[in-house]
Amino acid sequence: MIATRFDTARLAMLPLRIEYAGEMAGVLAAPELYVFTGGEPPTAEQLLRRYERQLAGPDDASGFWLNWVIQSTEDDLLVGYLQATVIGEDAEIAWVLGTGWQGRGYAKEAALGLVDWLRVQGVQRVIAHVHPDHSASAAVAAAAGLTRTAHLDDGEYLWEL
User: Fold this and answer.
1) Rounded to an integer, what distance in angstroms lies between the CA atom of residue 148 and that of residue 150?
2) Nearest Cα residue to 68 out of 97, 88, 90
3) What percentage of the chain reaches a pLDDT higher than 90?
4) Which of 15, 32, 126 lies closest to 70 in space, CA to CA?
5) Which DSSP string corresponds to 44-87?
6) Given phi > 0 = left and psi -120 to 50 = alpha, else beta, which region is 130?
């Protein structure tokens, strides 16, 4: 399975390329993006190395790492990213939207598009991990059709479809 481009009403999900590292460093530069996940804004060089690892894929053949950048088709700017780790018929998804583009419904639109894309690929179960205090990500997960379970994993709720 490989990440292929897919579009929603206002967004294009572009398969990850190392050339996106510079622009994405700006998208991911706000420290508040890391309040719930930890870490700090990556430099372009750090993103370049991360993208090289992600594009190489996992060390074993048990699954697939799928990565996209999110581009607004309204202004052709990169605004965030999506990830899916697929093992068999299960996928774990994640999304990050730069602070300058939050509040426009982009994350919900992208996550719903990702779930739809994964379903077409044969994925039966989709999960995400969301920090209990991250109401915006909880709203995105719900909009994508996931339901919060009572299961806490490393301080985050498991959401499942």
Assistant:
1) 7
2) 97
3) 91
4) 15
5) HHHHHHHHHHHHH--SSSS-EEEEEEEEETTT--EEEEEEEEEE
6) beta
Give the pLDDT of residue 60: 79
Kindly report the number of other CB atoms within 10 A of residue 79's CB atom. 24
What is the average pLDDT across 94-101? 96
In terms of pTM, does the model score above 0.90? Answer: yes
How many CB atoms within 10 Å of residue 48? Answer: 17
145 half-sphere exposure, CB direction, 13 A CA radius: 15
Residue with tokens 């499942």: 160
**Nearest-angstrom CA–CA distance, 45 and 31:** 17
CATH superfamily of 6-127: Gcn5-related N-acetyltransferase (GNAT) (3.40.630.30)
Per-residue CA distances from 146 to 58, 124, 137, 141, 155 (Å) = 26, 12, 11, 5, 18
Per domain, the residue ranges of the chain are 6-127
